[in-house]
Amino acid sequence: MAVAGLAVTNVASAGAADGRSRPAHDKALQADLEALVADGSLPGALMSVRNRDGRVTNYTAGVGDLRTRSKVPTDGYVRIASSTKMFTAVAILQLADEGKLALDDTVEKFLPGVVRGTGAGAAVDGRTITVRQLLNHTSGMTTEMPLMPRGILPIKDRYFDARELLDAALTQAPTYGPGQDRAWGYSNAGYVLLGLVAQKVAGRPFAEVVTERIINPIGLKETYYPGPGDRDIRSPHPQGYLPARDDAGKPTGDLVDITRFDPSIAGAAGQMIATPSDVNKFLVALQGGRLLKPNRLAEMRQTVSAPGFPEGWRYGLGTIEMKLSCGITAYGHGGDADGFQTRTAITPEGRAVTVAVTNDEVGRGEVLTFFDKALCAKE
């Protein structure tokens, strides 16, 4: 499961550049990728597949820029959104391996007096929330993002400090009421808090923690955590879009280019940018033991029920267990940042797939069906 020396085949939207199918090109997957973008609501799609034998094939479909009608760049950079949570979880688990924290430690141990809810969030208390509960979304932290009540457009150029995100979340009601058992609830705020924990324990900015512990050691040349004020995406990249809405909030049928915005609103929960093939390299390194010891990886894959997720999906520690239609269980994540929808996973045999489309608000069911098929494919 080595990352180095992978064979690579690039496939353009209409097939191989020389007009002939390459050995690793799955024509059925290419046709299905084309079908995803056929009606134009998803302008572009790109995918990287790493086969069990280490061969990498990159696919594209649609257009990369609606204004210029340029092609989708092969293996271009995209916002991976909540797949960032895998990186955050790995950083926390590495710190646990080093004895710098324990998963059942409370948040209070590392951030004394910081996590105290107010108003509707008065029941949220860092003295009763553990690191493990943050990792598997059973902490009770809000599922809302209160600083973007009207979506990304009004705040697209606004920088948010992680503490500001946390303080806003602490005004929100928890996912369980007084006297109730803890309820599972997918919480970006919980992962923002994990970023603060990792930063405090490691003694370095969170972006540096991820870069020095994960990105650099396994040679991810096309993965990065955007710095303060960085609103752009490295080239090459497709443009990201969201549906335009009228004053009443109803879609107009047009698409708005939202490629450029400040991703700090997501922080350690979803700020990162990468190419699909680099995300697959991360999954290969993780499964191959280059980032976590086997017992920690097994712990990462211990799951809880995740109401609201697709049938057969459960949540671990920053990773999703996915039961596929072919009977295989894969592990990965997904993410929806404004303009980009991504899904990524690896099977036990080492087949890794990352697919991205350039509109995060439509076609989610169709993308998941395609993603399942790509993971289950034999070649």
TrEMBL record:
Task: Give one Pfam family, short name only.
Answer: Beta-lactamase
Q: What keywords would UniProt list here?
A: Carboxypeptidase, Hydrolase, Protease
Signal peptide bounds? none
Query: Which ranges does the record mark as transmembrane?
Result: none
Beta-lactamase-related domain residues are 31-363
One molecular function GO term is:
carboxypeptidase activity
Q: Which InterPro entries match?
A: AmpC-like (IPR050491), Beta-lactam-related (IPR001466), Beta-lactam/transpept-like (IPR012338)
Q: Which PANTHER family match?
A: D-ALANYL-D-ALANINE CARBOXYPEPTIDASE, D-ALANYL-D-ALANINE-CARBOXYPEPTIDASE/ENDOPEPTIDASE AMPH
Write the protein's name.
D-alanyl-D-alanine carboxypeptidase
What species was this sequence derived from?
Answer: Saccharothrix texasensis
